[in-house]
Amino acid sequence: MISNSLPQSLIDNPLLSQWIAFDEPGRVRVGSGRVEIGQGIVTALAQIAAEELDVTFGQVNLVSGQTDFSPNEGFTSGSYSIAIGGASIRLVCAEVRSLFLERAAEKLGCKANELSIEDGRFFRAGKDTGMDYWAIAGDVALDRRASGTAPTKLPSSYRVVGKNIPRVDLPAKVAGAAFIHDIVAENVLHARVLRQPWRGARLVALDESAVRKAAKAPIEILREGNFVAFMADAEINVMRAAEAARSVARWEGGEPLPDNAGTPDWLKAQVARDRTVETGLKGRTEGKVFSARYSRPFLTYGSIGTACALAQFQDGALKVWSHTQGPAVVREWLARALSLKASQVSVFHRQGAGAYGHNTADDAAFDASFIALRHPGRTVRVQWSREDEFSGAPLSTAMAIELRAVLDHDNKPADWTIEIWSPPHAQRPGYNGNSNFAGAEALPNAPPLNEVGDVPDERGGGATRNAYAIYDLPRHRLIHHMLPKVPLRTSSLRGLGAWANVFAIESFMDELAERAGEDPVTYRLSLLSDPRPRRVVETVAQMSGWFESKTLGEGRAHGFGFARYKNIAAFAAVVVEIEVDEEICLKRVWCAADAGLVITPDGARNQIEGGIIMGASFAMKEQIRFKDGRIAAAGWDDYPILRFSEVPEIDIRLIDAPNEAALGLGETSVGPTCAAIGNAVARALGKRIRDMPLTRERIMTTLLAE
């Protein structure tokens, strides 16, 4: 019987044979449903396997995101790749090692504890026995359930884990051949798809003669309902056709968006499904009350490379190459949407240049597959344009957040309420029983969408992610207004609702500290009794010289932000130094993080640094605007992101905690960075801006306000 204490991935994929095989002499094949999206995860997971199996790193063949072998671990998201996926591989490899030791001992007529393993070979009293994993693999049945009871290595004995190993994914990237866009297929048919300008829009007219003329070569046009694709042997021809089609297509119906979509007033006017969660003692109703409202807008994914997919349908089998974050899930939902059996579909993960959440990778996979079924034997290649990325991608949802605290005689919160208005943060394939493929929604007789829901709290939450303040609060009340009927496909962007909630909570904490006349860091420490988060806060304060640099000069300031991602993953505290004139110039960032056992220190720092840069871009620049019912962005001029020239000096310190469980840290620094920037701007200006992004327009409006 499988213990419920096992990692979820091992509960879902209980057989050892779903994870590991010794089918190539001298190498061990380890499967993972987690995929490489720039986080160095393939390298880190291979390190865990090598450590537990006592083989070299080079002997591990980590097969990631291939549905014909890799276990189904759902989506690579939520900073679970190490905490869940890595924990599963650790237990599997430890158990396999134990089984092989027992079998080798039987063959040698000795006890298992008399044997050791080095580079996959078995030794007794320091002498090579002539046996290795591969020699006795046929004697060990791996089609058995994992028990999770085999002892794993102690951190003090690690040789591979905790070391910086050159990332296995980087050489191909440097050589320009790592990404799905680089795949050169034979007998390829290039395709582009005309996207609906808003959800539910009906195509009432398309001047096909103008489209064919613009292509400057013969093209095929496929139209089924509101799904329109242009196909040709040469990519340039379908690119021209798709660009022309956007200007000559006429759409009606559906649900065009008003220009003020995403503002707090607009959010509060939407139909809501409400719930309240209260924890702690009976709240205080009397005393000084302080409240404030914060917000964030709709965002898009801004992937550096646009979506791309390839598909081939031959002899009743569909092969799909995609940079999806959930190959096994997409396999199931492609089969459903295309009326195939899941056994007919194979999905192979290939890296894309930028992921960050539910972007258009899955949609491109559907587009290519749908067209491939109508062109058996051809390899169909679909690539989205930058304009399509902005107009057709799922959006990261806008949020409005109100905080209210009743203060005690020490100006500390005696009663705390957070109230959130937000559409759902997850409409990936399969969520709420919907395919959530943009192309599938455009087909005639597409099934009606089930009412959407958000990520449940027990899985980290969507809008409620990090809504529960980590501080020592006697009373905490969460009021969640989930907005299920917003006419947009909103979904998961890095951190989901966490970074907006952290921005609000940490801004509110700074405002409470100011009202109490206390230093913001000192005020927070007075509300943190747990030594682990205290250490992170104290470390970043020491790194940045927080208490020694009260005054930096006019228009310059430090700001602080802190959180534990999802309240269960890694801790991160961030201090920023900024200069504000009409715009914000981010000068320097310090970050202290506690991720427990760190598999690859360099990879961990890279993830934290990436979260800092993305958080800075969210806080200072990014927002989707609407005009004439649709998204008013066609390129980077309409949707600015942080530039390379604006990246500050970043100093990261990892708290040494090898005996603690490995914690997910890929998204942990985003929220604290947003909050630190907001707090620094308030200190520099003497006035607070509570709505992100903190743009030049908002800064000037704030400065000019009386």
Explain this structure to me?
- There is one protein chain.
- The protein is an alpha+beta fold and 706 residues long.
- The chain has three domains: 160 residues, Aldehyde Oxidoreductase, domain 4 (2-Layer Sandwich), CATH 3.30.365; 165 residues, Aldehyde Oxidoreductase, domain 4, CATH 3.30.365; 271 residues, Aldehyde oxidase/xanthine dehydrogenase, molybdopterin binding domain (Aldehyde Oxidoreductase, domain 4).
- The chain has 17 helices and 26 strands.
- The strands form seven sheets. The chain has a seven-stranded mixed beta sheet with strand order 9-10-7-17-14-15-16, with helices on both faces. The chain has a five-stranded mixed beta sheet with strand order 12-20-19-18-13. It has a four-stranded mixed beta sheet with strand order 21-22-23-26.
- Strand 9 and strand 10 form a beta hairpin.
- The chain starts with 7 loop residues before the first helix and ends with a helix.
